[in-house]
Amino acid sequence: MTHTQKRIIINKVVMSLSTLSAMIGMTFLFWILGVLVINGIEALNWTTFSEVGAPPGYEESGLKHALIGQLYIVGVAAFAGVPLGILAGTYLSEYGQKSRLAEIIRDVSDIMMSAPSIVIGAFVYAIVVTPMGHFSGWAGSIALTIIMLPIILRTTDDMLRLVPATLREAAFALGAPKYKVILQVVYRGAKVGILTGVLLGVARVAGETAPLLFTSFNDNFLNTDMSEPMASLTVTMYNYATSPYEDWQKLGWAAAFILSMFILGLNIIARVFLMKKRGK
């Protein structure tokens, strides 16, 4: 057997194993999605969105309190995390570049991205919840902001560094100050990539449960006061799904379906934007 024939055989074997592995992974993915869609849609109705949580056995029970609480907690986290992440990524790319401080920040952000979310929840519990003496929606948003920040930071840094240096040089040659070059040239060239990072960051924190158990805790009532314990869709789903009551379990399936479709939608939108950028 010649060397070429061996390479052809090895290539076919590796391709076959790779294809088989991909098919197995896709099978489990569609299996999970199928079970989720079947059980989730079956549990969905108008009261799911119009009514708050009720004791087991009540027909008028829904997830309105959890949906609004999730919107508040994630919305505040995005309001704080998105601009901070973009500004920090801008510093790394445009000012810090390859300085020692910038490299340290990059290394720390990489470590933070791989840190277990429950550890971040425990950290926020120690520095926010314990001094306040009670759980709160603010504490939940702080935990999610910490999780979101390194994702947006690194994405912004990477996307800005992909903008050709010649564009910056041309703008400087026309007499534009640095801040205008960043705002009108660099940001425009990287806007799709930055938006993709923002969507991925929001999608990541929207599905977190562990940090909210330590921070915002949960509430079975509608509450819009961020200084008090606040319901979230993720924790409510966990509580309902693990309860012994059939009606709560159905609401747990509905919550899982709503949350999964939201996160899946954000990820698909982010991938579409990224593919468009690569196509250009």
What does this entry show, briefly?
The protein contains eleven helices and no strands. It has helices at residues 3-43, 46-50, 64-96, 100-114, 117-132, 137-161, 165-173, 178-206, 210-214, 233-241, 246-279. The two termini are 45 Å apart.
The class by helix and strand makeup works out as: mainly alpha
Count up the helices.
Answer: 11
- Bin the strand percentage: under 5%
* CATH structural architecture of the largest domain: Orthogonal Bundle
Give the CATH class of the largest domain. Mainly Alpha
End-to-end separation in angstroms reads: 45 Å
The CATH homology group name of the largest domain: MetI-like
| Overall form | globular
Which blocks of ≥5 consecutive residues have pLDDT under 50?
none
**How much helix, percentage-wise, in residues?**
over 70%
Could you give the order of the helices and strands?
Answer: HHHHHHHHHHH
Total domains: 2
Q: Which value, in Å, is the CA radius of gyration? A: 23 Å
The tally of beta strands, per DSSP, is 0
Please outline the major beta sheet.
Answer: none
Q: Look up the CATH topology of the largest domain.
A: MetI-like fold
Residue-averaged pLDDT: 90
How do the strands and helices of this protein lay out in sequence?
Layout: H1 3-43, H2 46-50, H3 64-96, H4 100-114, H5 117-132, H6 137-161, H7 165-173, H8 178-206, H9 210-214, H10 233-241, H11 246-279
Helix pairs in contact: 1-11, 3-6, 3-8, 4-6, 5-6, 6-8, 7-8, 8-11, 10-11
